[in-house]
Amino acid sequence: DPSRRHFVDRNRMQSGLAWGVFVVESKADGGTMHTASFASRQGRPLACLSPVSDEETEGNMAGNATLMREERAVPITKPSDMRSFLAGLSDPVARKAAT
C-alpha cells in the first residue's frame, strides 16, 4: 500500500536493508531525514551531498546541512569523497558479527 502512512516504515526498512545511506537532498523536515535517523540508529554509515550555497542550506538541502553540522553524516564535496565512502561500506550483518 503506497499511502503516506507507510512512508516512515518504508524508510526504516530501506535503511535497514542498506549497507549505507547517501542523502542527495533533504529539507530539514523531509522524509529522508527519517531514513537518516534510522540509518544512524541501525549503525549504517551515513553520507550526504554538501550544500554549495547559503541558499541551499536554508532550502531543499537544509537537512543535509543539519546532518553535517551535527556530524551525523560524512560530507561529500568531490568525487573522491564518494569513492572513499563507498569503499568503506561493508555488509552490515558481517560488521555486526565482527563486534
What is the CA-atom radius of gyration, in angstroms? 14 Å
Percent helix range: 40-55%
Poorly predicted segments:
none
Largest sheet: 3 strands, parallel
Mean pLDDT: 89
Approximate shape: flat
The number of helical segments is: 6
Distance between the termini: 37 Å
| Main sheet strand line-up | 1-2-3
The proportion of residues in beta strands is 5-15%
Tell me the structural class.
mainly alpha
SSE blueprint:
Layout: H1 7-17, E1 21-23, H2 32-41, E2 46-49, H3 54-57, H4 62-69, E3 74-76, H5 79-87, H6 92-97
Question: Could you please describe the fold and organization of this structure?
Answer:
With 99 residues, the protein is mainly α. It has helices at residues 7-17, 32-41, 54-57, 62-69, 79-87, 92-97; strands at residues 21-23, 46-49, 74-76. It has a 3-stranded parallel sheet with strand order 1-2-3, with helices on both faces. β1, α2 (32-41) and β2 (46-49) form a beta-alpha-beta unit. α1 packs across α2. The longest helix is centred in the N-terminal third of the chain and has 11 residues, at 7-17. The termini are far apart. The model has no long low-confidence stretch (mean pLDDT 89).
Summarize the structure.
The chain is mostly helical. The chain has 6 helices and 3 strands; from the N terminus they run αβαβααβαα. Helix 1 (7-17) packs across helix 2.
Descriptive terms for the model:
flat, 99 residues, three-stranded parallel beta sheet, 48% helix, mainly alpha, single chain, 10% strand
